[in-house]
Each structure stands twice: as structure tokens, then as C-alpha cells.
Amino acid sequence: MMNTQKKEYQPHVGLWKVFPPDGKDDNSTVDIIAIHGLDTDSPRTWTYKSGANEINWLEDARLLPAAVPQARIYTYNWDAKVFADAPIETIFGHAEKLMALLQANQSTPSRPILFIASCFGGLILTEAITRAAKEGSQYRKILESTVGIVFLATPFFGTDAASQASLLAVVQEIMGKDASRLLIKNLEKGDNEIQDRTHQFGLIVNYRFKMPVSCFYETKPTKIIKKVLGKLVPNQFLRGSILVTKKSACLDGHPQWGLGRNHVMMNKFEKQGCPDYILVKQAILSILNDAPATLKSRLQPSAQPPIEPELNEEQRARLLASLKFKGLNELKNREKKRTFQWVFDATDSASGDDPFALDGDTRHISPEASGGPSAKSESQSRHSIRSWLRSKHKTFWISGKLGSGKTTLVKYLIDNPLTTEALSVWAKDPVIVSHFFWKAGSVDLQKNIKGCLCSILYQSLERRPVPFDTILSMNKSVLTKTSETDWSLEELRALCLKILGNYPSPVCMFLDGLDEIRIEDRLDILDLVNELQAIPNTKICLASRPEPHLQSAFSNYPQLRLQDLTFRDMENFVSKAIQPFVSKGRISSYVGKYFMETLIRKAEGVFLWLRLALDDLVRGLQNSDSDKELYVRLEQMPADIYKLYEDIWTRINEESAIYRAAAALYFKLVIASNIVNELSLLHFAVATTNLPQDFSIDTLNADHLDKKCEATKLQIRERCIGLLEIAESPYSTNQGRWGTRAASLLPYSRTMVRFPHRSVYDFFTETDEGDRILNFDSSTSHDLSLRLLRADLATTKFIRRGYVFNKARFDLRTLSDLADVFSAEEINEFLDGIRYLYNRGYYGTSMIKPHFLLLAAVLRFRQFVLSEIESSPDPALLATDVLRFKSNSLPACGDYLTELSDFSEPLMKLKANPSSKGICYGSDFYNEIVPEIRFRSATAGFLYEIIRYNMDDSGGIDKRLKQLRRFIEAGPNLQERVPLRINIMDTDEGVEIQGDFDDMNLYPNSSNVVVLDVDLGFLVGAYFKRALKKGMISSESIASYQPPIDELSDYSIHIALLGFEGHFNPLSADHSSADHSSADHSSADYSSADYSSVDGSLSDRLSLYRWGMNDYQCPSGTATRQLLELLVQFLYGDESRDIAQKVRDELERIKDEIRSHQSGYRRVTEKRITTFLANRNLGWCFVNEAGVVVNSLDEAEAHT
Q: I want to staple 994 with a disulfide (CB 3.0 to 4.6 A). Which of 502, 879, 981, 1036 is the partner?
């Protein structure tokens, strides 16, 4: 709504005209729109005050109106106070309102527009421009009319820590307690969300809609008085600071000017002759003078922005695998037993009114208002969900009682093509993603926010290609993730918001079971919903019980209450079950109708109750109960679902002690299986068999298990009266991994035993009556765990799952978690069973696998492992292997240090040699295809880990020093050499020590890489110097270690390899035809253009991980001496920005040398970095598929 009245104070948000004043002639031809920053009203932002004198340069006749008399000047006012607890994402909601208001002003879109944006207002404007540039945007005309922008101290690239504190202080001085700490914090320098929006905005103004942009930055610090600050910021900041630096306030390729004022004064000018005002005025005039040419240029074909590469297939598969977890689709893939065709059956009302067209005034149809479920209320609410799918409204809430069918409705909507058809009215080519929270799920990720984010990301990335840069800009380590455990919640949240914010298609999300999320995540899920809502081109449908905290949060959204709308579904459901008895004359049509009406009335919209009550009634009909008995049976059925469970149980099982005990055991096993593992019918059948204490896996017979599974299936149906169900598993099982004798068991492994609804689980775990039923079985948690774990091991004989020893590690981990439950004899029994399966290949057939005791070497089994080593034929050799495995397997923090410390001393007493080099399998090794493997000593592995991980963690320093002392006192070979990988970022992220090379994805997250060849003596010295530099230790505390801190020498450390980003072109146009034998460019050019020639061999397929890198061996140490000295300073603890910049500068110098073919740099010919290292015996070796170390790649692959 436009308001043309000029006021001294304008407390309302909106678009306000400040010039020309009302009543004056308006001969304007151009519009200027000024957007303020964090303030409560626009006049104060633009007004200079000196005593009683106030000058608003936007409306003062001597200033801007005089400079551009042809302009109509507006301010866009937004109420920043409403964001007291808002993240930066929420502020961008004003972008939509800005565009809508401009659209409403009929003349504005048809005439040139110039924007002036101050501070945060610039972020709102960039978002508005980005939204308007989207294909099909209704605001495209406004964008096409925009001739330029003037930015005043807009923090495009965030702020640093000091500026954050000061900026918050300034904002709080203006806004008081309403200032948003969270909003300010999200402006931290390098914030991914802001940088990504800036990147998208840059593509628009530089390529798609070329427009002039002028950036102004502050040059004077903002001083903050002590009484305002209090304890808000440290004392060192009281002198004042630049809040938005030149680097953050300016966009590359556009004019940049510094104004001689602080942040608060950047948008206030006191007089016509003010030098800073003159600069801003000239920028405005320059843009307006060029406006005709700017508009005309848009009629010509524009230059295309650089194409952002997509992930290659290997990278994409790896990223998807890291997000997929067990149980991801378990609840979604459960059988759907009813339809909700009525959602799409109804037609719009004759009037054609759309309930979503009434300014958001959408309400659910309450049963109180409608007098109960009626055809009218059903029809109106059907319109609501269909209309919402088609509308621009963001959020819809499906609420319903326990068991009313919310999840089934959500599944129906997701799978129905009519949903996509309706969404296509809202936006073209929509994508549907979903997540189902499940309290009774077997894994934590089914009931927490982390699982929800993994699910949304997995589906989003699977269904549409996302630019490589969009992913990497969030986190440089994204492509190193291999499983969901590698992700932190913060990383997933940031990546999810970034991907959806830049997604190539509109997205509709369905989130079901919000009441089933774990208690500690209840508030966080509401925050996540708010963040997802704020993303453009998204819709969210939520489904949950109407619990108080959800009712409070969602009550204002369009919604339906499911239990009020299922009358016809229930009628059809009951009719199908009862009609056969009427047709056969078992009951009259009158009695059948009475049964149907009574069941539906008592169900009160809860389908689960109806299903169980109907099953009970049908049993009575089948048992030839009289009509009177059936009347009584029906009337006595309790309406409460829990009471119904109790009532059915009492009448079916109360008279049979054997049935009661068996059913109770079944219920307990399903409950316990959530802790141990998924429960297939095959597992369940074995678990309910009374196996002998000293069971032998060899005695298990596939034919016997086949018969046992069939009998168990029948017993479940007879004894559990619908409180357990048997259903197809959502997970596929590869038949090729089954033994030939076990193919008949495949269907039982794919069939799951589970509760039909979460309320059944709740009934048994949260009610007294459920507990009473469970007590009919006397099994303890020990007994249940024993049964389940034995069953898991027994069925492993017939089911081979996972790589070589991943499943074995899982079983050992499960046993370790349950070690407190079992006796020492039982633990040893299981360890022997796992070893039996492992050694005979039931966990996998690859010959390349570590000794079983290496896998079993965890604290819980320490005594078992040490005893087995001691009784082995060669204790020293086996002890050395275990020590090497423990030293190389995990990061040097947490349990790693504890376990290594507790194992290393007794292992060294058994003559373990920490200097002996050998194969290092790592913590997640599965060597079925890669012919290279790590080859180093225990000491090397330990040193390598401690210098990489947690150098800022002083908590574990004593453990690290104690372990280092053990290795040093054992007289290690300090001349052993290992590779050290250093990543050099092209941003302020600087320099970092990266992980090992066994992830195959060589350089996924940095622009430049240096591989150092170092000996252990250097690493020891570097570790102590680094720790001293960080203040973690004192020189006195390490005097007794006498570490060999070598000076820099070519022997102790040198550069083995340089890797440059894919777009680095070593062949310039001037030298493309010259002889380059010294650079050897012809030997191996692995740019992305060469991928078309890949022949599908093992080495070539793996080389695809080398996505566009150019690798070089170094010449004599002289050429790279300066770079090496800088990296040594970094390794010795100098992590300053200055050292990082010097390293980047030195690398640029080296690139120039390579381009000009100086100093004999040679192109690396190996296609994998691990091949390069193994060829040089640098911490890696070649191994054939039999696990034998060989001398070359040819020998390794000859055995494949």
C-alpha cells in the first residue's frame, strides 16, 4: 500500500514517498528507492542532527532533490525490532515485501529505478534482486527497470569478531534490548549464507542483467562509549573499530569509494558541499546518466556467467552415501493399508472461491462448528489441502489424534501424482522430499533433527544436480564425508539451507511425526521449520498430534484435523469386512449396519482403533458368537486405544499361560531389538528358539530354519492379536551374497517383525497395563540381549553383509556395548563365535583383511586380546600388528588416546615393536579394489595423528605426551619417512594439515595442495614446537624427552608434490606448440576434457577422483625453498593470516615458473596419489588381492 503523506516520524513499515511533497507537481521520470539498515524508522537513518538542526538529505530541497529533480524518492521502511531473536535468514523475508510493494505501485515497474541501500538494507536488496531474477518471477519487470544501485557500507562478506561486538553495541544503542545478537553473529566473516547470496547477486548484475553498482565503505572507526558497552565487548575494542571493512563492503569489478566517516554516519550528510555527499551524489548522477544505455544493453544478448560444474558421478555417489543411514526410508516404505482419495475427489465450490486468496485467512473446519463430520466439512477441508498445494502459501498442518492416519495420509500425498499436478500450479517442475520421525525406530537418526537433515539433503541431491561450487562453498570438507557419523549437526543444517536456497527447482517438504522427535530436539525442530519456511520457492506440510507446544506453534497455519474427515474412508473399510457375513446370511443387513455405525461412532476418527476393534469383532463372527454376544462385545470395547489393547489382550490370552508368556517374550524382543539391531523374521525365529548355552553355528540347518520361520509367523498371528505385524522390509537383500543352501531363507530376511503403530510401543513401554503384560515373560534384559545377539551371529552364516569386516566390526561394537550385561564366559563365547564366522569368510570373502584380534582390540575385550596374543605362536609379531593397528586407526583424541594408552604398555611388554613397518588397515578399511595400502610403523601412525588432530585441545595433552614418551623410549626409527598433506585455500580459511590419502578423493576441498616428505624426527620436533607455540606445554615439561628437533634440512623434510586447481593451465598460448620436455606435459594430462577416453579399467576408474587437478614433482630444493620454509613455520605453530597469504603468493610464483617452463618441474604421471606414494615407498605400498606386499602396481593388478 502506498502512502504519500510526509511525516516527521513514520512508525509503519512499507513504501513511503518523501519527495516531491504532496500537493506539488510531480513531473518525475525516474524512481529512487532508499532502504535503511538496522533502525526503527527511515527518517532517523537518513537524518543528520546537529543540535536542533536536522537535515534529511533524501528530502531536503538543497540536497538530493536538487541534484535529481526528475526523481521521485521513496524510502522502504522495515521494522527491524521484530527480529530480536531472528537469524539472518529471517531478514530476507522483507525482500519479498519490497518487491510486492513496488509491484503494487502501478507506475514504478514501467520506469527506471535506482536503489540506495544502507548496511543491512543492502542484504535485503540483494535478496530481492536474486528472487526477481528467478525464472518465472512475477517481479521480473522491476528487475528489468532497475538501472543501478548505490550501496552504503553493506556487509556483503560479513564482519570479523571485533566488528561483530562493536556492531551489536551500536545497534543496541539505537534499538535497546530488541537488538538481535543472533542476527549480528550470523554476519560473522565468511558466513556461507551471506557469501552465497552475494555470489548469486554478482552473477545477475555482471552477466544476466548488467547494471552499474557503486560501493561505499567507511574509513573511520566507530567509537563506543563505556556506559553504552558495559560488559558487552572486551576493553581492547573500546578504542573503536571499522565495523564493515572495505573488503566486506565492496564487490569486485565495481566502483569503490571510501567515505571519511564511521559506520553510523555513512547514510547521513549535513550539507550540499560535504565532500562525502558529493561522492555519493556523483555516483547517483552517473548511474542515471547511463540509464538509457543500461536499459538498451539489455536488449542485446548478454555474456553468460561462468558455468558451475556439477559433481561427477563418483563424488555424487560418495556424498549421497554419507547422508544415507539405516532406517532412512523404513517408516515411509511401510505398507499403506488405506487410501485418501477424497483429498482429490472433491471439486472446487461453484463460487470458485479459493480459501487461500483471502489474505491468509485460512482456518481448519472444526467439528464443533460443523456439528461433527459432515459431507460439507469434509468437502471444505478437502478444498483446503488441495488449494494449499496449488497456492503460494508456505505451510500447512495436518493434525490428528493418535492412530487417526496422519502418516498414511502423508504417504498417500507423497506418492500420488495428483499432488505433483497440484503443486505444478504453484510452481513449475516441483520436487517432493519428505521425512518421517519415528519414536519407535531402531536408530537415533529416525527420531532426531540430524536424521531429518540427512533425509532432506539425500533426497534433494539425489533428484536434481546441484552445482559443485554451491556445495563446496559451504564447507571445504564436504566431499571427504563417508557416512552420517562424519557430519556435525551444524554442518548438515548449513548445507541443507544452502542447497535448498540455491536449488534448481521448487521444493515441497512433508515432515511427519513432529511429536515423535526426541524431547531435547522439540524446540530446535520449530526453529528448523522457521528456517525452511524462509527459503524462497519452498513449501512445508507438517503432520503431528496436536500436542500443546505444536498447537501453539502451528495454530495459525492453514490446517485440517484428520479425525474429523475420515468418515467415508471408515465406512468403506468396515463395509468391506462385514458385508461377506451379511451376504452369507451369518448376520442380517440391519445388524451389519448397526455394527458399522457403532464401530465408526466409537472410533472417533481413529483408524487404528477401528482396525483393531473390527478385527476383534470379525473373530467373534468367525467363532459363531450370537448376535447378543456380539452386541455386548462391541458396546464393551473401550474407546481409549490403550484400553482397547488391554481389553483385546485379556479376552484372547488371559486364559492361556503358555500363550501369555510366548506373546510377552515376542513383545520384549521387538522392544529390545531397537537397541541391538533390526529384527527380521529370520532373526526373530532364531531368537525365540531355546538355543543351547554352547550353541554351535555348524549345527544350524537352513531347512530347519525354514520350517521354524513358518511356525513363528503363525504363532505371531495367533498370540499377538494384531499388536505385532509381519511386513516387507524396506531394505533390499542381495541374493548373490547368500550361500547356495540359504536361498530359501531370503524371503524371511526381507520380512520384518514390528509393532504396527508407535502407540503400541508406547503402550508397552509407558503404561502400567503394558508393563503387566510384559511381565508374563520372565526374561531379563540380559536374556533378551543374549537371544538377539546369538540370533544375529547364527544368521550371519546364511547372510553375508557389508565389506570384508565392517559387519564383523559392527557385531564386535554391539557386543562391546552390551559387555556390562554379559558375563566374561558369555563374552568369550560370542568372541569365539564372531572369530569363527570371520575366519571362515562369512563376513566377506576378500583375502585382504586384518587378523581378527586387530578388530577385537577394544577396551572391553582387552584381557581376551592380550591372552590370545600371549598364547599365539609368535606373540611379538601379533602384538606389533595390534599396536600398529591401534596407532593408525582413529584420530588422536577421546577414546583413541585412552585405548592406545591402555593397550600400548602391555603390548610392548609382549615385545611389540613400535618401529616395525607393516600394513595399516585403518579404522574403516575395505580393500577390495584398491591396490595401494598404507605401510608404516606404529610410531609413524601416532605422530601423524597427533600433529593433525586437536592441537588446540589441551585436555588430552598429558595422554599424548605420555604415549609419545613410550614410543621415544623404545628407540624408534626417526628416519622413517611419511607423507604430510597440506591444503592451501584460496580464501581466508588459510592453510591446514589435511587427512590421509586413503579416501581416494585426492583434493576435493582446496585450490592447492602440497605433499611433504618428512621423517619422524621432524614430526617429533614439529609437534613440540607447535605445542610450545600454542602454550599447551612448557619447555621445562619436555626437557626429559630430549626430542630431536632438527633444523630445516633437505633430509628431514622436502616437498614431494605440488597439486594445483583444475583451472590452472600450464600451457599458455605462446608455448602451446613448443617442446616442453622439462615439464613433461605430454606424459599425463588429466584435465576434465580427457575423461572421455577413460577405458573403464580399475586404475582409470579410480583416477576420476582426481577431478581436474594438475600435479607436479619439484625440481631441486632451491626452486621451492621459500615455500618450504613458510610451511615449516606453519607446522611449527604459525597459523597467522600473514603466513597463509605468503604461502599463496609463493604458490602463484611457482605457477608462473611452471607456465614459463623454468626450473624443471615435471608433471606427475601417476593417476592416483596413493600410486605416487607407493612408488616412492612413502608411507604406502602395493598389495595384491591375496594381501601380499608386492613391488609395483603391475604386480598388484596382475593378481586381480
A: 981
User: Is 1200's pLDDT higher than 90?
Assistant: no
pLDDT mean over 466-484: 65
**Nearest CA to 71 among 98, 108, 37, 44?**
108
Per-residue pLDDT reduced to its tens digit, 856-903: 888 889 999 999 999 999 999 999 999 998 888 654 444 677 788 889
Q: Which residues contact 149 (CB under 8 A, 6 or more apart)?
A: 114, 115, 116, 117, 125, 205, 211, 212, 213, 214, 287
Q: Quick one: which of 637, 597, 632, 594 has its CA closest to 615? A: 637
Q: What's the CA angle centered on 426, arms 420 and 427, to 5 degrees?
A: 80
Q: For residue 757, give the DSSP letter.
A: S
Asked if residues 944 and 994 have their Cβ atoms less than 8 Å apart, the reply is no
What is residue 286's three-state secondary structure? helix
The mean of the pLDDT values for the chain is 75
Are residues 548 and 514 in contact, defined by beta-carbon separation less than 8 angstroms?
Answer: no
- Max CA separation in the chain (angstroms): 105
**In whole angstroms, how far apart are CA 178 and each of 39, 80, 172, 173, 989?**
11, 9, 7, 10, 33
The DSSP annotation for 550-597 comes to HHHHHTTS-EEEGGGS-HHHHHHHHHHHHHHHHHTTSS-HHHHHHHHH
**For residue 324, how far is the Cα from the chain centroid?**
11
Length of the chain: 1200
Find the DSSP H helices in 39-92.
Answer: 42-46, 64-67, 88-91
Rounded-to-5 percentages of helix, strand, coil across the chain:
50, 10, 40
Phi-psi region of 1148 (alpha: psi -120 to 50; beta: other; left: phi over 0): alpha
- Please name which of 1150, 1135, 1158 lies closest in space to residue 1009, comparing C-alpha atoms: 1150
Q: How far is CA 1164 from CA 932, 1103, 1159, 1171, in A?
A: 17, 13, 15, 11
What is the rounded distance in angstroms from the CA atom of residue 808 to the CA atom of residue 855? 8
DSSP state string for 1114-1144: --STTTTHHHHHHHHHHHTT---HHHHHHHH
DSSP 8-state assignment for residue 471: H
Cis peptide preceding 20, ω within 30 of 0: yes
pLDDT at residue 883, as a whole number: 93
Cα four-point dihedral sign 116, 121, 126, 131: negative
Distances (CA, A) of 815 to 256, 314, 828, 835: 65, 34, 10, 13
